[in-house]
Amino acid sequence: MRQEANNTMSMSSTKSVEVDEEKWVHDASLDHHGRTPLRDSTGAWKAALFIIAIEFSERLSYFGIATNLINYLTKVIHQDLKTAAKSVNYWSGVTTMMPLLGGFLADAYFGRFSMVLISSIIYLVGLSLLTMSELVPSLKSCEIVTCEKPKKLHTIFFFLGIYMISIATGGHKPSLESFGADQFDEDHPKERKQKMSYFNWWSTGLCCGLLFGVTVIVYIQDEVSWAAADITVTVIMAISIIIFISGKKFYRYRLPEGSPLTPMLHVLVAAITKRNLPHPSDPALLYEVPKSQKVHARLLCHTNKLRFLDKAAIIEDKEDKEKGSTYEQQSPWRLATVTRVEELKLVLNTFPIWFTTLAFGLCVAQASTFFLKQGSTMNRKIWNGFDIPPASIYSLAAIGLIISVCIYDRILVPILRKRTGNERGLNILQRIGIGMGFSVLSMATAALVEKKRLGVVDKEILQGGHIGPLSMSVFWLVPQFMIIGIGDGFTLIGLQEYFYDQVPDKMRSLGIALYLSVIGVSNFASSLLITIVDHLSSKGGNKSWFGKDLNHSRLDKFYWLLAAINVVNLCAYIFIARRYSYKSVQKRVVVAACSDDEVGQ
User: Name one GO cellular component term (predicted).
Assistant: First the structure.
């Protein structure tokens, strides 16, 4: 009966594709594909909602800590501003680079579910250490309310706690998002469309967590106590872990199959070894796993780009069979399948896209730094004398993203599907490019608002001698925050989808880590650009664009520079995107054929 059901599923659509390279597993018995036949009882939204819930709590905890970290270091740990800034940069750097290691370990050894669970427990331990450092008398920073220097033990526990959170984020972020996407079956037309919406609603859940983190948690820190905030995020994380585990029976799992990098090294070595061999006249002569063999892989179609690598799939000596050796018995260092070759091409093709999206990351970096600094100098009163906490202004970007996602997923995609015939509405790279256009608009808007703010500074402070916040309302910053948030809704979500879909199936957690590294490297690049601009603008006795404070700086010029950089970069991105070849998966039919519809278009 199970065999008949699977045969029926495989014949239901000529456009369906092979089972993903990593085996699907479930608590129930498996079919001959290594996959549970109980499709209706597992996966899809019934599983993804549990996963989005824990992402919400993780982002709430992370941004609740990260947004106000520099204030804690200066007010409680009593670091000077320069030392505190370095501490934040070091921690942020480790946090953004750790997903590369965590994603690799999840794909190669632990599996995504196990990595998420392990990381969540480490996260909870880190939050517990922060809570203990505020509640346990011997671990508190001071014996009295305030002191000039905190206890050394408090400092140790605090940094141990935040770096445990950093390590946990490295395993949590790439594994959880890819595990959520794994719940949607690309073989199933309905679930395939649902997966396209998944990345939109995943980011909505993320932004809701961010929104509560930079408003509710930051407010508790500022107006109640650091201890109360730590207790809150610790309890929320503990509850979310319970929720995540309770969804275990609904999840679909993939078993890791070892390092995804080793097969790529096989291809590279084999291609170099056979570099002097001529290309075959017909790509069909290149070696591929016979369709008659039972495989758990999605076979990829041959492409004509990076043809040098095709030499890894050239069959050297047909006399091997006469000697009793089959192609399958040859060393992988000498002969690779077309699918393995194409997987390496996929990874190499991501590098130009990764590089040309760094400029967008430069704009995103300003939202959490200079945008907030602008807001801290402005009138933040809204009603009855209530002041918006400076860190909470960042929530405007999250609101912009949520609005853009809702409009895009519920309104634009259905309309575009009918007009373009593309089930995504727009292909992935088009969506990314639109967001990059919004980043240019955001920087131009920010430059104009900053020019006006400097005019108010000159009138009220430099000439009028006013002390304190400007009369100019913080709501002047709404447009630039909202526009960059809308850009995030296109580019960042597009990048998530791109680095999940356009990498080999067995390294999708590492693919999400590559997306996260765009933001991490962009933060480092932003710091480097500021250093370079500061040096160049102060040459010849000129006044630097970055003065002793924001009121003595020319941030408007820096924003115009970023806008110009992004215009040039967008042109380069369009040039590359127009020539990009998406992943092409063979159809699952009796006769092997390559799909006309490429994954990602």
Answer: membrane
